[in-house]
Amino acid sequence: MQIHSRNDAWVLGREPPEGWPTDGDFRWVTRDQQLPDRGQALTKTLYLSMDPYQWGRRRSGTEVPGDVCHGRTVSEVIASRSDVYREGDIIFNTNGWQRFGLVGNGIDIFGYMFPRILDMNSAPVSTAVGILGMLGLTAYAGIYLQCRPQAGETVVVSAASGGVGQAAGQIARILGCRVVGIAGQQSKCRFVTEELRFDACISHLSPSYADDLREACPDGIDVYFESVGGSVYEGVLPLLNQRSRITLCGMISQYGNTLPEQASERWRTVGAPFFQKQNVTVHPLFVGNFVQDHQTTFLETMAGWIKDGLIRYREDIWDGLEQAPDGFAAMLKGKNFGKTLIKVAPDATTDDIPKPGRSNRNVLEA
Ligand code: NDP
Fold first, then answer.
1. To 10 degrees, the CA torsion angle through 293, 297, 299, 303?
2. pLDDT tens, residue by residue, 174-194
3. Residue 343: pLDDT band by 50, 70, 90 thresholds?
4. Which backbone phi and psi does 353 adopt, to 5 degrees?
5. pTM above 0.90?
6. Closest by alpha carbon to 225, among 190, 270, 261, 183?
7. CA 186 to ligand 1 center in whole angstroms
8. Does 161 contact ligand 1 (Cβ within 6 A)?
9. Whose CB has fewer CB within 10 Å in the chain, the N or C terminal residue?
């Protein structure tokens, strides 16, 4: 096995100003790669996950200029001096936006405790940063553990075609709910109803968005899975039923304008009159709080649902680490279609993949 002594990475180029990512925010660097010490393994990044929270980290100063950009990854162990990882293992870890990274006894370079060896036979390994990873767990926690919708209730899911939204709506569907998605373009809305089998999907880009949503929810809304904020959220508020529940998962429409804490404050102020009148329960969601107690059950449950054809998913794959800033910006601006991933190196575990460029899978095969 050839050990690579050089590593390419995207580092934060400057402190991001208010707004959305631009070219100067990221800088490409190539430098020496440290080899594994005793107890460590060297891993090659196969897939890098693009997630909205990464922009929050950058803008809040958690990540400073020169830091390797944070990102969860699926990686292959290419050299090991660890008792835990063997050469050839495919693992979920947090290499960040770079080709190679070290893991050591359950901790990766960002100090995360989550690295785990993947079962290559249960699902494509890329799902470990998507439907069978944090995104799926986020949806499971918000719908299944927090809001607990009853059969027959109306559940509305924003960003319905995206990584979290796809899973959230389908879990509610499994629970017997009437599920209404909210998405942007009509092609996404069609995907949500035809492939993901939601009962309806409304475009927030339509001038009649609020009326369309009202029409799609004749019995009001019992559960709202919030990922977007802004005008999408404001269309939901008047439709909330008595004792309805909201999972506050995110508010991506605001991430370029304000920091997450400011966005949360504004969100609560706008919603307060409705919450009070309708006795609404808001469940703030941070997926990290659910890992320890629920990850194992979630993984078993979700893998079963996928195997049984109850859950489908779509990935939006960009080819090459070089594309990470473009893929990231596109995702934040809603130009993605499904869970956004960067394919950094060929994935030998799935023969029909890699496909060059952007692709999707599973929904068309299911
Ligand atoms: P997605 O794959 O859903 O991509 C983001 C989607 O958001 C876009 O496809 C777009 O869909 C929609 N969007 C973007 N900008 C706007 C806008 N201005 N107005 C309306 N819709 C917009 O991303 P993820 O699944 O990774 O994340 C979804 C949400 O979940 C985010 O808010 C994220 O921060 C949150 N999250 C929270 C976690 C937690 O622990 N609380 C963990 C993981 C994610 P469309 O074109 O259809 O509008």
1. -170
2. 999 999 999 999 999 999 999
3. very high
4. -125, 145
5. yes
6. 183
7. 17
8. yes
9. N
Question: Ligand 1 test: best mutation among 135, 164, 204, 340, most atoms within 8 Å of CB?
Answer: 164
Binding site membership of 52 for ligand 1 (Cβ less than 6 Å) = yes
Residue 227 alpha carbon, nearest atom of ligand 1: 32
Task: Report the amino acid identity of residue 95.
Answer: N
- Dihedral angle at the C-alpha atoms of 132, 134, 140, 142, nearest 10 degrees? -160
Q: How remote is the CA of residue 91 from the centroid of ligand 1, in Å?
A: 25
What pLDDT was estimated at residue 112?
59
In this prediction, residue 257 carries a pLDDT of 80
What is residue 235's predicted lDDT score, i.e. its pLDDT? 98
d(CA 43, CA 337): 29
Query: pLDDT tens digit string along 256-310?
Result: 887 777 888 899 999 999 999 999 999 999 998 998 899 999 999 999 999 999 9
Residues in Cβ contact with 13 at an 8 Å cutoff, skipping those fewer than 6 apart: 24, 25, 26, 27, 65
Q: Which residue type does 363 have?
A: V
Residue 108: per-residue pLDDT = 65
Domains and CATH numbers, the chain: 6-131+314-363 (3.90.180.10), 134-287 (3.40.50.720)
The pLDDT value recorded for residue 171 is: 98
131-149: pLDDT as tens digits = 999 999 999 999 999 999 9
53 in contact with ligand 1, CB cutoff 6 A: yes
Per the CB < 8 A criterion, the answer to whether 142 and 249 are in contact is: yes
For the chain, give the percent of residues with pLDDT over 70: 92
